[in-house]
Amino acid sequence: MLSVEDNALLTKVGPGTPAGNLFRRFWHPVVTAARLPEPDGKPLRARILGENIILFRDTSGKVGALQALCPHRRTQLFWGRNEEGGLRCAYHGWKFDVSGQCVDMPTEPPESNYKDRLRTIGYPVEERGGFVWIYMGPRDRQPPLPEYEWMDLPAGHVLSSSFLQESNYLQALEGDVDTAHVSYLHRFLDPETAPQPPQMVQGYRHFVIQDTAPRLSVKQTGYGFLYGGRRTLDDGNYYWRITQWLAPAATQLPSAGELSNAKINVPVDDENTMSFGVFYHRNRPMREGEWYTPSTSTEPYKISTGHIVDHPRGATNLDNDFLIDREAEKRKFVGVKGGTGAEDRAVTESMGPVMDRSEEHLGVSDIAVVAVRRACCGWSGTSRTAPSRRCPRTGSCSTPAGWT
Ligand code: FES
Ligand SMILES: [Fe+2]
């Protein structure tokens, strides 16, 4: 369990908060590049780390990420016209380029140089690996883009997706470093009947039910940690599932056979998260139907905090009980519809927007969950040096019985 104070320390991500400062020291994907397909196309409303921004691709193809409200009289730039190298506000026609510089101010006298002195907030943006990346931290501390192995693969080798997780980022991340749930939440009662892509590792569904109490080991690294969950199979062999956690909220998940699988959780605000998924093959293009993309709607959506965003929302969601099918429970452990991603979201979103960790009861199978919390407590708001092995805040991040 966590104290109420430490739960808040880890889950509040707005400007000026310790975790918010930590996240602002990293580049984050903010949207798949495919959602801004053409120059001078439709702008998108996004929200990230508790800040509303507007994304647009200008005439030259560059992407801009500006503060959502016009600096003149604070209307939404979303209403504006994306034309001739900038976004022109709908109210009085003031226009801003991708850097945030005002480049036209048609309601001011022609002799005025006011426009040259006015900037709005425009964040650095890069496009790589199928995503638009944004950096929101101090400019003098701006790091290079991360070097994930999938970022420079040919486009056909990578399948990228994005979907809204309607909870705090930590609930999503804790699910990503929780191998024990795979034996239950994603279980088919008869593994032979499970629909699965042909490239999924042979026997995976059989292995995870032969031993439902994996033994976990965590190894600290400079980027976070890796942990392994070891299951003992009926024939005496071990089945290991190995996950890497890359601070602050990305994971390299256990391989699904030939394919590799990565996920990056990016806080929208304290109560919502954008999850970016990547399936890829290092040596060849992905094949048709080899993996699935989540079924989402890209209709504008009012999130829990009341903000309207253009983030893709799962077609099955809390509002429709994930279309749970009790008949289906004769074949699989849970009847939630929408695949493994929807199963994960159903359990983690239903904890509430921000889970109360002072009420939980952890077991030894939660060792990696505890390791993430300890590391984040150590990193929050201070530096990017690797976390210490011990919790820096005594009395919190309690150690499960049996963990030495
Ligand atoms: S409010 Fe945007 S130009 Fe006036
Ligand atoms: Fe899962």
Question: How would you characterize the overall build of this protein?
Answer:
The radius of gyration is 22 Å and the shape is elongated. The protein has 404 residues and is of the alpha+beta class. The strands form six sheets. Strands 11-17-16-15-14-13-12 form a seven-stranded antiparallel β-sheet. A four-stranded antiparallel β-sheet has the order 5-6-7-8. The protein has seven helices and 21 strands. The chain folds into two domains: 27-141, Rieske Iron-sulfur Protein (3-layer Sandwich), CATH 2.102.10.10; 155-379, Naphthalene 1,2-dioxygenase Alpha Subunit, Chain A, domain 1. The protein binds FE2/S2 (inorganic) cluster (FES) and fe (ii) ion. The site of fe (ii) ion has 6 residues, from helix 6.
Order of strands side by side in the largest beta sheet? 11-17-16-15-14-13-12
> What percent of residues are in strands?
25-35%
* Class by SSE composition: alpha+beta
Query: What characterizes the major β-sheet?
Result: 7 strands, antiparallel
Number of domains: 2
Helix content: 10-25%
State the low-pLDDT regions, or none.
381-404
Cofactors and ligands present?
FE2/S2 (inorganic) cluster, fe (ii) ion
Note the run of SSEs as H and E. HHEEEEEEEEHEEEHHEEEEEEEEEEHH
CATH-derived topology of the largest domain: Naphthalene 1,2-dioxygenase Alpha Subunit, Chain A, domain 1
**Mean pLDDT value:** 91
End-to-end C-alpha gap: 17 Å
Topology:
Blueprint: H1 4-11, H2 18-23, E1 27-32, E2 44-48, E3 51-57, E4 63-67, E5 81-83, E6 86-88, E7 95-96, E8 102-104, H3 114-117, E9 125-128, E10 131-135, E11 158-165, H4 169-176, H5 204-210, E12 215-221, E13 224-232, E14 238-246, E15 250-256, E16 259-269, E17 272-280, E18 296-297, E19 301-302, E20 308-309, E21 313-314, H6 339-349, H7 367-379
Antiparallel strand pairs: 1-10, 2-3, 3-4, 5-6, 6-7, 7-8, 9-10, 11-17, 12-13, 13-14, 14-15, 15-16, 16-17, 18-21, 19-20
The structure holds FE2/S2 (inorganic) cluster and fe (ii) ion.
